[in-house]
Amino acid sequence: MHEQCPDLHRRFLYICAVRRQPRRRLPAGRTQRDHLDAAHRSRDEPVGDGVSLAPRREFELRWFTPKVEVDLCGHATLASAHVLWQTGRARGETIAFHTRSGVLTAARRGDAIELDFPALERRKTEPPVGLLGALGLSRALFVGANQHDYLVEVESAETVRSLQPDFPRLREVTGSVRGVIVTARSDEQRRDIISRFFAPGAGIDEDPVTGSAHCALAPYWAPKLGKNEIRAYQASARGGELLVTLRGDRVNLLGKAATILEGTLVV
Hints:
CATH superfamily of the largest domain: Diaminopimelate Epimerase, Chain A, domain 1
Order of helices and strands: EEEEEEHEEEEHEEHHEEEHEEE
Distance between the termini: 21 Å
CATH architecture of the largest domain: Roll
CATH topology of the largest domain: Diaminopimelate Epimerase, Chain A, domain 1
CATH class of the largest domain: Alpha Beta
Number of helices: 5
Radius of gyration: 19 Å
Helix content: 10-25%
Structural class: alpha+beta
Number of strands: 18
């Protein structure tokens, strides 16, 4: 006996987040039922992290790569706040998200959105065997780790830009660690630091722009630069600029988001 199932209609929104120029922002898809649900990537437009939102007086927020659930994600949080304000599900100037990393807030700042995230302190560590080689490096100025990622400082911005990691090997070396941040001082006057982020073990060889990585970069670079407001550039193929501010044990990330596609999925 065959029973026909009714169609399910789900609204979806395609959000560009982080960068100032709409064509170069980072894509984050959203679908809506009686709650906002998961986002996924296509092969030609990879989405670093999708998101699941459950409604309440405040909001519960979870993040997913194509492979695993992660504890912290910047651009998906930015896109989620944008959608909640755009659809009228959030009214007021601040949204609180309950997450695996505690309560995170998003606040309107003119036409931008400021995220309040935890600062991730690193500890100096010996790199695991094969890490530098998998990144294509022979040496590093510093190697550290926090609860999510390794952080590697190299000698120049050009070294960061020219990296060509061996991703299968890097996936084996990093094990259960989410990813690797590689960073250096910027060689451009309008920027302070440059970085790239690799997470093949989480299903993302290279993330275009990683807000959560800057939660580690801010407390690392602030004392070295002698300032708490940092102009950061993530040098992926798509690229992304962030204004990052260290405030004690918190990091503020300022970015913008725009809806570029909206429709209905019939499942």
